[in-house]
């Protein structure tokens, strides 16, 4: 499947990522999942609030890093391809997503 | 009052929450864990980047809501008790945590 | 005026700050005002977008630092006094403000 | 196309915006400058901390809106042109800027 490219516009747009990139992104999500279970354990063990909040903030950072890696790949591939092919609505779509991720 | 040491203080500070509060917080964390696994599924299914990013931003919001509920409880209980008992370093500790959570 | 304390609850609540604290906060706001005028100059001089955005992000950081300094003082004075006096709605008020400042 | 150098590139990159866009951006900055002076007045008049913090958060929002408008224009013009011309380092530059603006 690596290298295979789904039709640029299908009814639901798909994105075939190369194996290395997918693995990195999946590893990040697995670590984040582990961190969330860590928060549950802290709660079960009656941890002090500031400690839980500090760890929650670390989960947030990990999630933001995941988004940055994904966004960089997206800009370099899908967005660049679309712009070169003259598909301008990709920029509007990108701004809509950035709006959710920006401060 | 400074220097007085409440019973709840052990060498590692714990926080016994009431059952209803703990359940609400745990339910939130369980939902967040499910959302993170949802992100993993989207990745496996080659979902388009903006869709993954939009869902990641929703996980972020859920995590922030969790922090807000926890922080409110913390302010109302631990911080209020400490201030009434004259333990001022609780404010410094609170600011250190807020710094991580603030924009 | 330093040390004079306005009635804890007036029809509009005031906060008399000591001179040194007020000066620090005012200096920060003056610097931020200068930075905003700097952004205007960059725009007039047709600066490249990433450079303007980088500087705008620096203004944002300065604003956040101002908020942190103000919030720390607020927690140490007004909030602590209110909690010691048994005025609990101060915590709700604080959470409403924190909600705007938090990520 | 890589290596081709557009006329708009000087040793310091400039961006000539059209008059309407520049006016909108300048108006936003003028309003933000006014809001910062408003914060100074509140401080002089001993306004209550939560009120100053609420207004500071509004200044933050105005600054973020300014960034969004500028970023959208940047994506539609400079970034799109560069990508079409094969200048790939524009994406790295964009990610560096986004990193500062993202949560």
Report on the structure:
- The structure is a homotetramer of 103-residue chains.
- Chain A has 3 helices and no strands.
- The first copy, chain A, has 103 residues and is mainly α.
- Chains in contact: A-B, A-D, B-C, C-D.
- At the A-B interface, helix 1, helix 2 and helix 3 of A face helix 1, helix 2 and helix 3 of B.
Topology:
The structure is a homotetramer of 103-residue chains.
Chain A: H1 19-44, H2 49-84, H3 89-101
Briefly, what is this?
Four copies of one chain form a homotetramer. The first copy, chain A, has 103 residues and is an all-alpha fold.
* Regions with little confidence, pLDDT below 50 for 5+ residues of chain A: 1-10
The level of helicity of chain A is over 70%
| Count of alpha/pi helices of chain A | 3
Give the C-alpha Rg of chain A.
Answer: 18 Å
Give average pLDDT of chain A, whole number: 88
Based on the model shown, name its key terms.
homotetramer, 73% helix, 103 residues, mainly alpha
């Amino acid at each position: 499947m690596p290298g295979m490219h789904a039709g640029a516009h299908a009814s639901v747009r798909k994105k075939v990522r190369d194996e290395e990139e997918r693995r990195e992104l999946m590893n990040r999500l697995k670590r984040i999942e582990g961190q969330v279970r860590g928060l549950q354990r802290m709660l079960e063990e009656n941890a002090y609030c500031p400690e839980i909040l500090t760890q929650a903030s670390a989960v947030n950072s990990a999630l933001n890093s995941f988004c940055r890696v994904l966004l960089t790949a997206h800009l370099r591939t899908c967005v660049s391809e679309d712009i070169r092919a003259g598909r301008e609505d990709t920029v509007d779509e990108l701004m809509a997503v950035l709006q959710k991720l920006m401060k």
